[in-house]
Amino acid sequence: MTGKMIFFDIDGTLLDHDKKIPTSTKQAICELKRLGHEVAIATGRGPFMFKEIREELGIDSFVSYNGQYVEFRGEPLLKNPIQAELLQQLTEYADKHGNPIVYMDLETMRSSTEYHVHIEESIATLKVPHPAHDPEYFRGRDIFQCLVFCTIGEEPMYRERFSSLDFIRWHQFSMDVLPLGGSKAKGIEAMIGKLGIAKEDIYAFGDYLNDIEMLQFAGNSIAMGNAPDIVKKAAKHVTKDVGEDGIMHGLRLVGLL
């Protein structure tokens, strides 16, 4: 590969505050591909949650579930599901404390409860409906990520109880649950290792807590202007807000456009 490889987060990066792709971002990605660069997505979402985005932007390589499932041009490169025993323990613990769980595989997501207001409020920010109810969905399937719906005050008890899992807060009522050490950085590392791409030829754009490892890992990293300070500090560059043509500005800032 002679060009560079650019990874984009989705929410707050490719998608603006109204969950739309800015026109300037579409133009920028089209131009990157015309120049011979490889464009990929790096997201906490599952593949079924951003199929339309991939189709709209013509992107077929991605790091999903915060690095637990990786594809390059339709070929799976990495699968790292949560251990079945840990899923069972997490389910029992969350049920005991009245916290619902959503289980996520490659096809869809299912909820441990029929309806919960915390699921509704947090999932709705992704423009996704409340998942269907199937408390047994985690059995016999590769579950790459869970969502535990709990308050910030309840978070420490999960971290203390499950030292073999990582918890990443993404909403006041919800945390991503991943295998220990899982991150977008690990997913990117697996992809570029198999493709033989040097770290200095990697660019990454992100805006939130689950992007920190990726921004620290990439040879060239750009935090969105709408990112919290802790995320901006992890990046080499800071661009404008996603709603102010932040992607286009960032690509010009680092000399790719």
TrEMBL record:
For this protein, the record's NCBIfam families field holds: Cof-subfamily, HAD-SF-IIB
Organism of derivation: Paenibacillus abyssi
Q: What is this protein called?
A: Phosphatase
Recite the lineage of the species. Answer: Bacteria, Bacillati, Bacillota, Bacilli, Bacillales
Record's GO cellular component terms: cytosol
Q: Can you name one GO molecular function term for this protein?
A: magnesium ion binding
Extent of the signal sequence: none
Alphabetical list of Pfam families matching this protein: Hydrolase_3 (PF08282)
Gene3D superfamilies xref list = 3.30.1240.10, HAD superfamily/HAD-like
